[in-house]
Amino acid sequence: MVAFPVFLDSYQQVRLSSSLVFLAHLLLLLLLQPGEVNSENFTVVGPGEFVLAYVGDEVEFPCHLSPYLDAEDMEILWFRSQAADVVHLYQGRRELYGQQMAQYQNRTELVKDDIADGSVSLRLHRVTLEDEGTYGCCFSSGDFSGEAIWELEVAGLGSDPHISLEGFKDGGIQLRCTSSGWYPKPQVQWRDHQGRCLTPQTEAIVKDAQGLFRLETSVIVLEGTHNNVSCSIQNSFLGQKKEFVVHIADVFLLRTSLWKSIFFGTLVGLLLLLALLTILALCFFEKQRRSQEKLKKQAEKDKGKLQMELDWRRAEGQADLVCVSLQRKTPF
To answer: Is 153 exposed, middle or buried (0-12, 13-18, 19+ CB in 10 A)?
Structure first.
């Protein structure tokens, strides 16, 4: 019976351990109740300090609780600069649009597949330059409220450069480069085949109605240059550029072909004009010849008639003289 007290001590230790485990589980359950969350124990994690979006694309703003907690019954708000500027509102297990700012209507989409784990995301469609600025997301439930803040930066990577032949000027060929849809203001550079910068003849970078930059620049390349010339446009904010290369030999070949076409076209036109003038001249002379022949025949005809009339009158006059002579010789 000496071991009996030891048995009681072991039993008491086991009972005490079970009680401690139960109390620990109970404490954990109390901590995880949404209505009794301690704001010091949970934080809201946003997408980061900065978010980059391209004009016309969509951007996503993910937010979650740390540590993860069911947020299905919480109020989740995405706002612009301040809470009163509502971008998107989730409340009472549904999305409310009555307080949403006009510029975000029909452009937001809530992704809540993992809301039970405290993770949600807001998609903003058709990004514009006006969307650039400060954003935040806020989780609130009972005594708990937390938010995350970030900056949305918007950029535009414009269209591919287009080089066109403008004509021949100052002993060389004038090339023009155009592109649009850039933001912020881009940098443009002409270069030859060796990478050397070419001084532009003209350069204009202006904003369009959407606030995006459109550029137009030209350069004169001297004749005899049978190498590549490039127009490069760079967005320094994105660290990206677009480039277009043209081969000068092909352009001058186009010039030769153009002048040949103009020469032969002019020559054919002159020949046709000469032939037409020749035909008109022949027709004119032929008409004049026929008119003269007709006048000549008419004159000869009139002359014959006049001669006949004159002969007739002479004959008639002689007959009258004979009659008069006869009358004088006849006695009464």
So the answer is: middle
